[in-house]
Amino acid sequence: MNVNNRILVVGANGQIGLVLTAALRARYGTDQVVATDIRPATNPPAGPFAVLDVLDSQALEQLIQDYNINQIYHLAAILSARGESDPRWAWQINMEGLFNVLEAARLHKLKVFFPSSIAVFGPSTPRDHTPQHTAMEPTTVYGISKVAGEQWCQYYFQRYGVDVRSVRYPGIIGYQSMPGGGTTDYAVEVYHRAVKGEHFNCFLRPDTRLPMLYMDDAIAGTLALMEAPPEQVKIRTSYNLAGMSFTPAEVVAEITKYFPDFSVSYQPDYRQRIADSWTQSIDDGDARRDWGWQARFDLPAMTQDMISHLQQYYALTQV
Ligand code: SER
After folding, report:
1. C-alpha 65 – ligand 1 centre gap (Å)
2. Do 198 and 253 share a structural domain?
3. Residue whose CA is closest, atom 6 of ligand 1?
4. Which one is predicted more confidently, 52 or 2?
5. What atom in ligand 1 is closest to the CA of residue 179?
6. How many structural domains are present in the chain?
7. Which atom belonging to ligand 1 lies closest to the Cα atom of 184?
8. pLDDT tens per residue across span 77-113
9. What CATH number did the domain enclosing 190 receive?
10. Of the listed 142, 175, 186, 191, which one is catalytic?
């Protein structure tokens, strides 16, 4: 392996993990990136892979030694909606998993990426242009684990000098992979339904505005943060990131420009309460200033790109 980037991805088969692992391999070389997940992938891409339960610190240690790892992207977590079905289990996976990674990073001087989320925000947070430094009183166990996780990352940086970097992802939308267990998942499913010509039943109210980000921007931002010179990374909890903000009604209106007969119904469930506790738009001025963050995709550009890729994927004829 090349000496500079020997990367372990934890949770490599998740929504972000699949795409980020491919991007890291394209950038640094297939063999430089070891993908791990609790389960093997259905169609595994070329490159090193190991099954890893993030609660197994010894197995993590072994992989770090075997592959001489110097960076970990720690993506394994139970998301907002799924976490509510078993809060203590979600807490255990999210927190112990992070501790295992941070401890390994301390011992082996590894660089770490930790994804935080807009789920750190809660009802007491300003809802529009949510500032970087603000009230964070989340209502979900996922949100609580991300607030605590951010603080632990900063602690490991300040106390032990661990180079840990983080962003608060909005809802992530991409054609490459499916999300699981989140509150923003509807915004991926809606595209698949439209392209397949199926009815879409939305689990949020049509007017629920949430911050979102296209996958390509999320990946570019993550790589930019991880490659930034350390002195530019001034925030060691987690950076706000903004892409776009929209409601289900707005994304449906955009999709309807391509599929005029798209049929949609709304049946809010327990996820509505989670969405209502989050903020609507994000101020990402610190990320822009410190390491040059800038999202490229807005709702129309994303919709065009999603639809054309999904049409290829489902092998449909061009609209
Ligand atoms: N997409 C995530 C969720 O909905 C937010 O980080 O849980």
Report:
1. 32
2. yes
3. 117
4. 52
5. 1
6. 2
7. 4
8. 999 999 999 999 999 999 999 999 999 999 999 999 9
9. 3.90.25
10. 142
- Ligand 1 center to 119 CA (angstroms): 7
pLDDT digits (tens, 9 = 90+) for 3-45: 689 999 999 999 999 999 999 999 999 999 999 999 998 888 9
Residue-number span of the structural domain to which 205 is assigned: 173-210+243-280+297-317
Ligand 1 centroid distance, CA of 83 (Å): 11
Look at residue 319 and tell me whether its pLDDT is greater than 50: no
Minimum-distance ligand 1 atom for the alpha carbon of 183: 4
For residue 189, tell me if it sits in a domain: yes
Contacts of residue 47, Cβ cutoff 8 Å, sequence gap at least 6: 21, 25, 30, 31, 33, 34, 35
Kindly state if the Cβ of 166 falls inside 6 Å of ligand 1.
no
